[in-house]
Design goal:
- The longest helix has 22 residues, at 19-40.
- Strand 16, helix 22 and strand 17 form a beta-alpha-beta unit.
- The chain folds into 4 domains: 4-194 and 238-290, Rossmann fold; 196-234; 316-470, Thiamin diphosphate (ThDP)-binding fold, Pyr/PP domains (Rossmann fold, 3-Layer(aba) Sandwich), CATH 3.40.50; 488-614, 3-Layer(aba) Sandwich (Rossmann fold).
- It is globular, with a radius of gyration of 27 Å.
- The relative contact order is 0.08.
- The protein contains 24 helices and 17 strands.
- The chain is an alpha/beta fold and 619 residues long.
- The strands form 3 sheets. A 7-stranded mixed sheet has the order 7-6-8-9-11-10-15, with helices on both faces. The protein has a 5-stranded parallel sheet with strand order 1-2-3-5-4, with helices on both faces.
- The structure holds thiamine diphosphate, 1-deoxy-D-xylulose-5-phosphate (DXP) and magnesium ion.
- Magnesium ion binds at residues 145-147, 175, 177-178.
Length: 619
């Protein structure tokens, strides 16, 4: 049986439902959303806040033709539910299931890839321009949150879009929150903008009073000045209008009837329109409304209480945060920077202990790196804690602002390697290559908590120039010793094959070495502690002995440590049978890290299998 809310041959999916039916559908979707995400985990709070908005959009626009561009895309679950994927929600973010972000290869309704913030307006503008150039006829929408609006790329998009002179609807979903409370001047401007209804009421009353009584020129002048001051304090000139948009709002984002009416009106305007919608992050699920930060991205939980099914346990981010607090206690030059990821990067304790030395720049990784460069130039020791995938945004700032002058900026590169459920937009598999291209850069790859603690101290207190410490999402593995201060160390000696790697992959190499030992093969296990600049002296010596090298790493194949190691062998004239095990040339999908590693041959069994192949041994 088809459902009224999922059938669309032509036109908006929900075009035929009444306001009452729309409100009932919102309640039902909200309930299902909580139920499904409590099983799979995911971005619950953002989606709860976008229920009415998504339903209203699907009452007005036909997303199979009209192009709806999500910013970040973490708030697309309702859209997926309404576009034929409602039954698949229990597979959300699971290996082989539907993705947690829009994917054009999943549905014609997903107009564009999303995952990284602030690009939606630029992408939507590109679509609008293509539509006009190709003389086609459809609407283009960008749905952007107030958090994403802290990113510079959003303004590049807006600045161009406002002047484009054609239909383009930017919907601002303003809930006052990024992952944590939104920061910066634009967040303040939006907060004031939300007071607009009060201002309008004031204006109406003021006019009425002025018409009723003639109070004389002097009084008028005085009140005019008061009004001007009030206007400046309550409603600074609308940023959107100044950029060329017709500004509508702010509108109550949980009144589906009103939203639909406003969207219907907006859809008739053949010009750039900015619709400002006020929403509540976590709306309708009390634990999420009370704690939207904790429910931004959740692991499976009890839908009755909101309590997580499993407690998280110790992780690299928390160890990083603690170590940085320790270092900052003895050195007042140490400062911490985040780009809207204060909780994810483990910086909450630092922000509380040293509020004057803690800076959240919003979703502005480029700004964070340039700001860190400025701080370093003036004698501070800035530590920018950032996810590997988001640091990609700052490649030019790394090269231009930090490296040329060899400034001592420390990069705490979190979520390095596979991250799991977020998938291809979020895996930290490119930093190994891109950081290696930065002149003067040093990159540490701790394999466990105690190495992270020591290497971070080294990076902050004793190194100079740009230096990064990269570590993965989650907890440590069985290998928990500190391997010491050498650039590379032999953890286990053997004569038949060299298994080399760094970071948490060491656990899989040691497991493979155990499995090889059961076949009578003695593997030498080499661990790099520093991967840029890469010192291959020990690796070359080892391979001279074993005649075979396998390098395993959770990173893209191009620019990998393995590639560099092979080049070093060639340069040294050491012949060897070799295998490079990594993420290859493509993108890695979403799913549990253990399953992704299995598919890539990066788990212990996979490394064992490939080592056997290198050695030409039957299994
Ligand atoms: C370039 C980049 N940096 C950081 C992030 C991590 N991130 C994901 S969602 C989010 C907050 C987004 O806030 P907003 O756009 O207001 O959406 P809301 O969750 O409030 O609906 C952040 C910082 C990201 N996705 N992309
Ligand atoms: C949507 C987004 O980019 C973040 O919310 C990200 O999903 C956080 O990932 P972690 O769960 O690893 O902090
Ligand atoms: Mg927000």
């Amino acid at each position: 049986m088809t459902r009224k809310d999922e059938t669309s041959e032509n036109g908006p999916i929900l075009r035929d439902i009444s306001d009452q039916e729309a409100a009932a559908l919102c309640a039902q979707l909200r309930e299902e959303l909580v139920r499904d995400v409590s099983q799979t985990g995911g971005h619950l709070a953002s989606n709860l806040g976008a229920v009415e908005l998504t339903v209203a959009i699907h009452r007005v626009f036909d997303t199979s033709r009209d192009r709806l561009v999500f910013d970040v895309g973490h708030q697309c679950y309702l859209h997926k539910m309404l576009t034929g994927r409602r039954e698949q929600m229990p597979t959300l973010r699971q290996y082989g299931g539907i993705a947690g972000f829009p994917k054009p290869n999943e549905s014609v309704h997903d107009a564009f890839i999303a995952g990284h913030a602030s690009n939606s307006v630029a992408v939507a503008l590109g679509m609008a321009r293509a539509r006009t150039a190709l003389e086609e006829d459809y609407k283009v929408l960008a749905l952007i949150g107030d958090g994403a609006l802290t990113g510079g790329l959003a303004y590049e998009g807006l600045s161009n879009a406002g002047q484009c002179g054609q239909q383009l609807l930017v919907i601002l979903n303003d809930n006052g929150m990024s992952i944590t409370r939104n920061v910066g001047g634009v967040a303040q401007l939006l907060a004031r903008q939300r007071l607009k209804p009060k201002y309008l009421r004031f204006k109406q009353n003021y006019r009425r009073v002025m018409h009723a009584f003639w109070l004389g020129r002097q009084i008028y002048k005085v009140t005019h000045e008061i009004k001007k001051a009030l206007k400046q304090s309550l409603l600074p000139c609308s940023m959107f209008e100044d950029m060329g948009f017709t500004y509508l709002g702010p509108v109550d984002g949980h009144d589906v009837a009103q939203l639909t009416k406003t969207l219907r009106y907006a859809s008739t305007l053949n010009e750039p329109v900015a619709l400002h919608v006020r929403t509540v992050k976590g709306k309708g699920f009390a634990p999420a409304e009370a704690n939207p930060d904790a429910f931004h991205g959740v692991s499976p939980f009890d839908p009755a209480t909101g309590k997580a099914n499993k407690s998280g346990g110790e992780n690299f981010s928390a160890v990083f945060g603690r170590t940085l607090v320790r270092l900052a206690r003895t050195d007042r030059r140490v400062c911490a920077i985040t780009a809207a990821m204060v909780s994810g990067t483990g910086l909450v304790p630092f922000s509380k202990a040293f509020p004057k030395r803690f800076f959240d720049v919003g979703i502005a990784e480029g700004c964070a790196v340039s700001m860190a460069a400025g701080m370093a130039k003036q004698g501070a020791v800035p530590v920018f804690a950032v996810y590997s995938t988001f640091l990609q945004r700052s490649y030019d700032m790394l090269l231009h602002d930090v490296a040329i002058d060899d400034l001592h900026v420390v990069f705490a590169v979190d979520r390095a390697g596979l991250v799991g459920d977020d998938g291809e937009t979020h895996h930290g598999v490119f930093d190994v290559a891109y950081l290696d291209t930065i002149p003067g850069m040093k990159v540490y790859a701790p394999a466990n908590f105690s190495e992270l603690d020591r290497m971070l101290e080294q990076a902050v207190c004793r190194d100079s120039g740009p230096v990064a410490v990269r570590y993965p999402r989650g907890g440590q593995g069985g290998y928990q010793e500190d391997s010491g201060e050498e650039n590379a160390v032999i953890l286990r000696t053997g004569k038949d094959i060299t298994l080399a790697g760094y970071g948490m992959e060491i656990n899989d190499l040691l497991s493979a070495a155990d499995q090889l030992a059961q076949q009578g093969i003695q593997a030498e296990v080499l661990k790099w502690n520093v991967i840029t600049p890469l010192d291959c002296t020990l690796a070359v010596e080892s391979v001279k002995k074993t005649g075979a090298l396998l390098v395993a790493e959770e990173c893209a194949g191009q620019g990998s440590v393995g590639q560099r190691a092979l080049a070093a062998l060639e340069e040294a004239g050491v012949p060897a049978r070799t295998a490079l095990v990594n993420c290859g040339a493509g993108y890695v999908p979403h799913g549990a890290v253990s399953l992704l590693k299995r598919d890539l041959g990066l788990d212990g069994a996979g490394v064992f299998r490939q080592a056997m192949e290198v050695l030409g041994r039957d299994q």
